Amino acid sequence: MNRKPAPPNRHRKKQSLFHWREQLLSRRRFLLAAAGGGLACLFPLASMADKQAMQQDPWPVIDAVQQQLFPGEPGIPGAREINALGYLQFVVNDKTLPQEDRDFILQGTTWLQGMSTKKYRRGFTQLNNNEREQLLRLIAGSEAGENWLSTLLLYIFEALLSDPVYGGNTGEAGWQWLAHTPGFPRPPADKTFVQLLKI
Amino acid sequence: MNDFDICIIGSGAGGGPVALTLAEAGYSVLVLEKGPWFREQDFYKDELACCRRSVYTPDLRDEQHVIEDLEDGQWQATPTSESGWDFWNGNCVGGSSNFMSGFFHRLKPVDFHQLSEFGPIDGANRVDWPISYNDLAPYYDRVEHEVGVSGKFEAHKNIEPRSGDFPYPPTREHIVSSWIDRACDKLDYHSLRVPRAILSEPEGKRRSCEYSGYCGSYGCSSGAKGSSRAALLDRAVATGNCEIRPHSKVIRLRSDSRKKVTAVEYIDGKNKTHRVQANTYVVACQAIETARLLLYSTGPAFPDGLANNNGQVGKNLLFSAGGSGSGDFEFDSIRPDQLSPFRQLGPFVNRALDDWYTINDKKLSAAPLKGGIVEFLFSHPNPTSRANSLKWDDDKLLWGKPLKRKLESWFTTDRTLRFEVFNDWLPTDNCFVSLDPRVKDRWQTPVAKVRIGYHPHDLKIGRYLADRGEQVLQQMGAVRIDSSVSGAPPANLVAGGCRFGNDPKTSVLDKDCRAHEVENLFVTDGSFMPTGGSVPYTWTIYANAFRVADIIKGG
């Protein structure tokens, strides 16, 4: 398109011009609360005092959430088949990602674990499929929780449909599934955006 | 003895023509560009690099804008690092012309005297230009050759006067173009074959278009797209008279008490400050940044910014009014022999309607109104962005199998044809650039604050045109037809802010685009435009920059 759409917000769900301001405030409130330990007001069931949850490795939790958000099916790729987890690790380790976004992705697992422990007395990865789904529905009911899931979905889509040079879209599985024709020439490993930023 | 004859700040469509013309004429030229210098071999069809990370534009934490929009009757200022609403359009050698779609339109004669032709509008600062279409026409021609414009001259009801045919035949066209033509015939509309600043045949070191279908927003890897870099600057450098310095952020222009610019100060990529002197200075940083640079460049004779003793710098900023619409063509409904060409990505649509460039419709207004164009196009095939837009079901986040079924349906069962409406963004007192009093960039200079108010008349015209676009889609048999017209500015279609005109009290530049108050200062980006016209700006910016280059060359 020649007209650059406005305003492009990564977390936008409504088309209204000023909705991004609400989204921004929601993320700000979440991070402030996370920093100050006041999450209880945002997530009444979460217990930030759960030190055990806070010390856990976030990646198994994210892996489980990604599979819930984007499950594999026979012949159709899911999060695992497109290496969504490895791709998100690349994203989080990319120095150009704002620290705020990195914190948001990783700290989200802490309160998800907190809520899981509070509600089921088990961590998220120990829940069965129904319990996982219910818990995600529950957190999607809060704006920050919904924002977090929306962010994870964004990076699942990047893993699904970006060039495999970035580590996702294994064997071009995402492109094949959605009959997407990539452009050419395609980026070689020495011309990824990470490399281009050094020019 | 000055370091260079000419120092140009900014390397996009406003800077390139000046660099090439003067370098070819034997002048020594320096081009200062804030961003890096990407070459053809750095451009790949990579959605992350083009559109999802800050590769071609600054990180908003380092450099941003503050946008003032009207909410509940109050002007509210929001830094773009917070909103994510990015107003950068390409900061690298060649500027945003690297990333344009390249559908090219000339202004029409009527755009040069809108006030005389259509009269004033309350709340709008409509004026006539100090030059006419005939003054610019030879330079539109020159752009066709120098930048490379592919097209075909065809008799058409509204076609602006021009001499001869295009230097390159039209780019390959998509099957949908003929469907548009047929639908327009039925409606008694006159579809127009749109020229494109993309080479359909190789020229010099530039290859012809390779039709990958990934064009707008992407840098061109064949050199076919007529960016300032590929078409002009590479040739300027080859003369031996032009030097381009990337990673050179100009902080300010220094001026003396005799109202002459005396030097440019810039900071290089290693944070070292430099000072360069030239006989003539040309500013072409795209409208918002040009105004910002002048406003920040105070001096003994210019306490409020360079060339700003009448307070006009930054005023009457223009975007492009209008909106967009779309309709879907379901694969099931398409003749089997046409399905494969319809799904093809590479060829261009190259179709627009300018039947309502002047609207004579008594139902809308007793007197003729300035209208605009409807341009047909396919969306950029950016799959991640597209998928991400599908995760909402009304206001509810969708995931799991329902999300996957939706993706399958949206990606594999139809293709969307879009149209964009371009009409005049009326100049008003509510759309301007100033310096933000608080927010600074990474060089500790104040960022541009942009008030983005629009005139309600723009929406009326935009809606009128969008309805016509919808009619065409309807006639073509599209489903789920929809359109929206809004006052939200497209950040990449920006002009004005340093109007040219005959009266120094109401304009910054004279008709030659030289600052009224500063003898050795020219502005050659889109800033000069006092009214916008109803087409994308690039061809006009190129043409005017060639015109001004001839003036500078002539002394």
Q: How much strand content do the residues of chain A show?
A: under 5%
Output the helix-strand order of chain A: HHHHHHHHH
Structural class of chain B: alpha+beta
- Write down the overall geometry of chain B: globular
Report the end-to-end length of chain A measured between terminal Cα atoms.
Answer: 27 Å
First and last CA, distance of chain B: 18 Å
Helix % of chain B is 25-40%
Number of strands of chain A: 0
| Number of DSSP E strands of chain B | 24
- Low-confidence sequence ranges of chain B: none
> In percent terms, what proportion of residues of chain B is strand?
15-25%
Using a beta-carbon cutoff below 8 angstroms, give the protein chain pair with the largest interface and the number of residues from each chain: A-B, 61 and 75 residues
Q: What characterizes the major β-sheet of chain A?
A: none
What characteristic shape of chain A results from the CA principal axes? Answer: globular
Q: What is the gyration radius of chain B calculated from CA atoms?
A: 23 Å
Q: What is this structure, in a nutshell?
A:
The complex is a heterodimer of chains A (199) and B (555). Chain A is mostly helical.
Description:
The complex is a heterodimer of chains A (199) and B (555). With 199 residues, chain A is mostly helical. Chain A has one domain (25-197). Helix content of chain A is 53%, strand content 0%. Chain A is built from nine helices and no strands. Residues 7-21 and 35-49 of chain A have low confidence and may be disordered. Chain B is an alpha+beta fold and 555 residues long. Chain B has helices at residues 16-24, 47-52, 80-83, 114-118, 133-148, 175-187, 228-238, 287-296, 336-343, 383-389, 400-412, 456-476, 538-553; strands at residues 4-9, 29-32, 66-71, 74-79, 191-193, 242-245, 249-255, 261-267, 273-276, 278-283, 315-318, 320-330, 351-353, 358-359, 369-370, 372-378, 392-393, 396-397, 414-424, 431-440, 446-452, 479-485, 495-497, 521-523. The mean pLDDT of chain B is 97. The interface between A and B is large, with 61 and 75 residues.
